[in-house]
Amino acid sequence: MNCPKCGSEAVSKALTQYPINHCLNCDNLFYVHNILVDNLQAEIAALKLRIEKLDEELKEICICAAIKTPSGIYRGHRHGDCFLVMQRKKILRSTEDIQGFITSRNRFVDRNEGRKLQDIARIESVSP
Ligand SMILES: [Zn+2]
């Protein structure tokens, strides 16, 4: 334990029945209890900020349009581009095709889930 005033490690207990410490270097008397609470509060505040920042960074957002078909997922800037990719690869459109998006976590989501993710991340629709 270090003295909160001078930082010296030369600290001894002043009174055994109370949590009062005595710095042998600067003669400071201090409560261990208060120091711990102060340190913990600062640590908790720093951790809370870090968690908030991580939460912000980890928000899943839509990266590009995608169409999920029985033969695979086709990506594009917009859904029209996905259809062009499919056309080029001679993939026939089917009723099983699902229009959606690829997210920042490399996950396919349908249009509804994509809209929800964008709403949570407060990103407005390009074409509402
Ligand atoms: Zn001291």
Q: Can you put this structure into words, describing what you see?
A:
- The chain has 128 residues and is α+β, with helices and mostly antiparallel strands.
- It has 2 domains: 11-56; 62-120, no CATH class.
- The chain is built from 3 helices and 7 strands; from the N terminus they run βββαββαββα.
- The radius of gyration is 29 Å and the shape is rod-shaped.
- The termini are far apart.
- Bound molecules: zinc ion (ZN).
- Residues 3, 5-6, 8, 23, 25-26, 28 line the site of zinc ion.
Alpha plus pi helix count: 3
Structural class: alpha+beta
* CA-based gyration radius: 29 Å
The ordered string of helix (H) and strand (E) elements is EEEHEEHEEH
Q: Report strand order across the widest sheet.
A: 5-4-6-7
The best one-word shape is rod-shaped
Biggest pleated sheet: 4 strands, antiparallel
The CA-CA distance between the termini, in Å, is 60 Å
| Number of strand segments | 7
Give the count of structural domains. Answer: 2
